[in-house]
Design a protein that fits this description.
protein biosynthesis, Transl_elongation_fac_P, 16 strands, about 55% strand, cytoplasm, Transl_elong_KOW-like
């Protein structure tokens, strides 16, 4: 059991039969009335973000989250197969559960798989990945090296905005957090 005094960003708690990660929190001591903690929580099962207020000193269960390094192997009928790099155990994750991460996931990539009591909650990609440009409009002479952008389709099917000088076949470093171009590889 933990109390609101133990809150910190990234801590996982169990409230109302759901697993929540604390995104941010603030202790509030009003001039009149009891102190309370205002928090922003992310549901690890659904991805929904919710504002929640707890009275100061409220106690709740801490949710033990396990993170394992796993390698993405292949897609099998809408399920994605991952292998634990230490135990070689394989698990399948439904595509709907990792829909947002799929646009940057390629075979043999290592990811962090988040689990709670052997229930897969999701995956965390590396902050940046190197992907090849499959299709983009050709640059036109006179386009500036900086200051403009065009859409490019990557090898995983993701579409991002890139500078005009990028052409098909280039390998790019892409930020997976906000789906942006970083640089050429």
């Amino acid at each position: 059991m933990i109390s609101t005094a133990d809150f910190k960003n990234g801590l996982t708690i169990e409230v109302d039969n759901a697993i929540w990660r604390i995104v941010e929190f603030q202790h509030v001591k009003p001039g009149k009335g009891g102190a309370f903690v205002r928090s922003k929580l992310k549901n690890l099962r659904t991805g929904a973000v919710q504002d929640k207020t707890f009275r100061a000193g409220a106690r709740m269960e801490q949710a033990p989250i396990d993170k394992s390094t796993m390698q993405y192997l292949y897609e099998d009928g809408g399920n994605y197969v991952f292998m634990n790099t230490e135990t070689y155990e394989q698990i399948e994750i439904p595509g709907e559960q990792i829909e947002n991460e799929l646009k940057f996931l390629k075979e043999n990539m290592e990811v962090q798989v988040t689990m709670y009591n052997n229930e897969v909650l999701g995956i965390d990609l590396p902050n940046t990945v190197t992907l090849e440009v499959k299709e983009t409009e050709p640059g036109i002479k006179g386009d500036t090296a900086s200051g403009g952008s065009k859409p490019a389709t990557l090898e995983t099917g993701a579409i991002i905005q890139v500078p005009f000088f990028v052409k098909a076949g280039d390998k790019l470093i892409v930020n997976t957090v906000d789906s942006t171009y970083v640089s050429r590889a």
